[in-house]
């Protein structure tokens, strides 16, 4: 059962009790506006999921919607065959929509933009697919894409999908070590990367980091394709013998035609590594039929995406949100998806609003951490722009506090756009808990009810549903098409991580299996779920999921460190920030030099996103009598909270000492 120490805390994030109705003008035009949809899904489960599959074109019709004969290894749309690249591109061209925009790419430099119509996207994808094949990539080979927000990233993803090669995208902000770990875990022999990219006006050297990462790859990497993003601003690296310039390579395949390979519905579309409880990231496996249906269906039902829309999700494609809601969902529906390379504050803090105005964006999907920053910068930035094209707003990644929700609703949506607060995970493939924007009232701070067909419940440690307002654990009872199928090459860990807490793991009856996402939550009398945050050793920094164990192992790898404990402390903008409590080795001082080396160690092992906000040197860590580190207490210290009874500790005297060293600002 979940760790009692990690019991979610209620008070900080409870909604303020206000309710907002969906705007009339939105309801009239919405893709889904009939409240009966919940009953229809429930009464017709699992066949209701045909509605998701109907958003796709199948080469071979499936025979069975759900095969649950071997839980938790569920299979969806079995017997069906399809190709994701065909579904995201070709069929729209065949429908006569080839001249409509598929991708609007906005570079960080304000004068750099690129538009790809569906026909242009098809040509680029086919040429790169031909190039990948020429380099030896075959069906089922895993291709790693270590790329920032440049158009070649979605092009490479779709090119992989076209030839049946699963991709594994590694967030460009991750470190060289993180790249190596992921390539090693997936045995990936092919890599697509780039020379660099811009961050707030400065070029960053990405190829150097790539090369450093490649040194840590244990097997032979046969081919590396390098996109020249920076041109004259580049760093002038020579390409190694196994490295090819993207443009040179593609030029050899000008006009190439590559038939989309029909894939089994259950064939892997991609792997996505994410943080878990242990130090090793988990390779989440998503499939072609179930994942794509689910991404398309939720884009249709929740984001209200229509082919004629211009839709913008401001996430990075290096995370699941970008996979499902920049690339696969929107393109499957044939809409125009905006993709932005830079940060919201460059060259000025109105950059996003300038883009919304310029492109007449209809839906904006972003993260609470960004909204809190906008709020801090002030409403004068959005006020400089005409945002009237917006019809719907969305958030994802972490709990949104009611104040930030209301700011978003008022100053960005002009009180005329529904806000969908969507709870989901890398593992769920798509949204799970959120209001349907034309059906349900909105309650700021609460994500809403589970989507139709999703059987989510808030339970106590014994699996019994908790009463309204009581804190418990979020669980999901029925499978859904977008769910992960396993962890790459590790079925055992898949079961351990997600299914042991609440399932009867000896049973072969699907009803006895319950998915546990490791989030704490409450539910109110209307069935609205408020997600409180992780109850495992995962923290959420600016909507990015980080494993405390991963950070701890990076810190103990630094010379002079004996032991480390990492927790998440509350942070005004980031949601949570990394607090590291460190015991030095004999002969080392907890001084500025060691602090800097610790920070560098974390950045090298994971990336700047995991950088500790505070490093607190201590002689001991608070431990229970059985020797377990009291993380809860360390969290309370980080948050400057009054501590409860510490007498059950083996070493209560350390607490005051640690408290005096933490600056609670
Ligand atoms: C958290 C991102 C509250 C949650 C799509 C989950 C949220 C983790 C919300 C997954 C939300 C995501 N409200 N918490 N609307 N959305 N989370 O895998 O803790 O990067 O388990 O997927 O983010 O993070 P991941």
UniProtKB/TrEMBL annotation:
Protein name per its UniProtKB record: Acetate--CoA ligase
Pfam families: ACAS_N (PF16177), AMP-binding (PF00501), AMP-binding_C (PF13193)
Keyword Protein transport among UniProt keywords: no
Keyword field contains Nucleotide-binding: yes
EC code(s) of this entry: 6.2.1.1
Highest taxon above the source species: Archaea
SUPFAM superfamilies the UniProt entry points to: Acetyl-CoA synthetase-like (SSF56801)
The entry's keywords: ATP-binding, Ligase, Nucleotide-binding
Gene coding for it: acs2
Gene Ontology biological process terms, A to Z: acetyl-CoA biosynthetic process from acetate; carbon fixation by 3-hydroxypropionate cycle
């Amino acid at each position: 059962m979940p760790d009692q120490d990690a019991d979610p805390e209620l008070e900080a994030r409870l909604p303020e009790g206000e309710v907002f109705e969906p705007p009339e003008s939105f309801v009239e035009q919405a893709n889904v506006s009939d409240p009966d949809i919940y009953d229809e899904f429930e009464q017709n489960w699992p066949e209701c999921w045909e509605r998701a599959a109907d958003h796709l074109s199948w080469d071979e019709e499936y025979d069975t919607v759900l095969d649950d004969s071997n839980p938790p290894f569920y299979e969806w749309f079995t017997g069906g065959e399809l190709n994701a690249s065909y579904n995201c591109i070709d069929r729209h061209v065949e429908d006569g929509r080839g001249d409509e925009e598929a991708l609007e790419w906005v570079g960080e430099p304000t004068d750099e933009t690129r538009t790809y119509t569906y026909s242009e996207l098809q040509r680029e994808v086919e040429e790169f697919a031909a190039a990948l094949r020429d380099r030896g990539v075959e069906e089922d080979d895993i291709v790693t894409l270590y790329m920032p927000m440049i158009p070649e990233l979605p092009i490479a993803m779709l090119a992989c999908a076209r030839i049946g090669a699963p991709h594994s995208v590694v967030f460009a902000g991750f470190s060289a070590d993180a790249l190596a770990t992921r390539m090693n875990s997936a045995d990936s022999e092919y890599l697509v990367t780039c020379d660099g990219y811009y961050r707030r006006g400065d070029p960053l050297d990405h190829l150097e980091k790539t090369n450093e990462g490649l040194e840590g790859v244990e097997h032979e990497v046969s081919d590396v394709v390098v996109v020249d993003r920076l041109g004259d601003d580049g760093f002038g690296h020579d390409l190694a013998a196994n490295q090819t310039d993207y443009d040179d390579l593609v030029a050899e395949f000008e006009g190439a035609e590559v038939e989309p390979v029909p894939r089994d519905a259950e064939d892997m579309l991609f792997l996505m590594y994410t943080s878990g409880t242990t130090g090793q990231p988990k390779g989440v496996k998503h499939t072609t039929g179930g994942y794509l249906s689910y991404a398309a269906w939720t884009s249709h039902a929740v984001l209200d995406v229509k082919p004629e829309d211009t839709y913008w999700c401001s996430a990075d494609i290096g995370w699941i949100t970008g996979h499902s809601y920049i690339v696969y969902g929107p393109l499957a529906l044939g809409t125009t998806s905006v993709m932005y390379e830079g940060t919201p504050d460059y060259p000025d803090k109105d950059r996003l609003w300038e883009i919304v105005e310029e492109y007449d964006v209809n839906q904006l999907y972003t993260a609470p951490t960004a909204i809190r920053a906008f709020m801090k910068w002030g409403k004068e930035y959005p006020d400089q722009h005409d945002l009237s094209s917006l019809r719907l707003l969305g958030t994802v990644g972490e709990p949104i506090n009611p104040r930030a929700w209301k700011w978003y609703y008022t100053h960005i949506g002009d009180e005329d756009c529904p806000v969908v607060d969507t709870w989901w995970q890398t593992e769920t493939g798509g949204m799970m808990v959120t209001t349907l924007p034309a059906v349900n009232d909105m309650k700021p701070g609460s994500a809403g009810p589970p989507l139709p067909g999703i059987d989510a419940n808030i339970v106590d440690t014994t699996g019994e549903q908790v009463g309204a307002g009581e804190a418990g654990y979020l669980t999901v009872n029925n499978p859904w098409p977008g769910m992960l199928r396993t962890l790459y090459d590790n079925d055992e860990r898949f079961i351990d991580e997600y299914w042991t807490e609440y399932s009867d793991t000896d049973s072969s009856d699907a009803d006895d299996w319950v998915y546990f996402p490791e989030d704490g939550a409450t539910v109110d009398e209307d069935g609205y779920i408020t997600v409180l945050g992780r109850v495992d050793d995962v923290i959420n920094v600016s909507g990015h999921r980080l494993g405390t164990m991963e950070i701890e192992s990076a810190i103990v790898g630094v010379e002079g460190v004996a032991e480390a404990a990492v927790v998440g402390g509350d942070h005004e903008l980031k949601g949570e920030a990394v607090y590291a409590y460190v015991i030095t080795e004999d002969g080392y001082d907890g001084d500025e030099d060691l602090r800097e080396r610790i920070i560098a160690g974390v950045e090298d092992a994971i990336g700047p996103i995991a950088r500790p906000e505070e490093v607190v040197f201590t002689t001991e860590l608070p431990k229970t009598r059985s020797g377990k580190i009291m993380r809860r207490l360390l969290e309370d210290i980080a948050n400057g909270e009054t501590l409860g009874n510490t007498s059950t500790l083996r070493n209560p005297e350390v607490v005051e000492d640690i408290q005096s060293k933490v600056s609670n600002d």
